[in-house]
Structures are given as structure tokens and as C-alpha cells.
Amino acid sequence: MKASKFTGAQKALIIKQAEARTAVAESCRKAGVSTAAFFNW
């Protein structure tokens, strides 16, 4: 199995940023993660 590119703390930060904003796609684009991966988290 492939190791995750992001640590747990980084994932939490990206999720919190997405909660603060209205556009999830924008947060994902800035972090360099796909929206599918974001919703799997």
C-alpha cells in the first residue's frame, strides 16, 4: 500500500481550511489534493 503524501496534521489543517471557506475545490487546489481524496479523509 502506498504511503500517504500528507500527514494527519496536514489533513486536519486542510479540512479546517475547507470548513472556514465555502469552496472545497479551492481549498483542495491550493493544497494540491484531489477533491476525491479530500472526501475520503
Structure characteristics:
41 residues, 3 helices, mainly alpha, single chain
Would you mind describing this structure in some detail?
The longest helix has 13 residues, at 8-20. Helices cover 66% and strands 0% of the residues. The chain is mostly helical and 41 residues long. It has one domain (8-40).
**Series of secondary-structure elements, N-terminal to C-terminal:** HHH
Mean pLDDT across all residues, rounded?
86
**What kind of sheet is the major sheet?**
none
Radius of gyration: 10 Å
* Total discrete domains: 1
Report how far the terminal alpha carbons are from each other: 16 Å
Assembly context of the chains: single chain
Portion in helices: 55-70%
| Number of E strands | 0
How would you sum up the global shape? globular
Percent strand equals: under 5%
SS summary, helix count: 3
Helix/strand-derived class?
mainly alpha
State the low-pLDDT regions, or none: none
Describe the secondary-structure layout:
Blueprint (H helix, E strand, L loop, with lengths): L7 H13 L3 H8 L3 H6 L1
Helix pairs in contact: 1-2
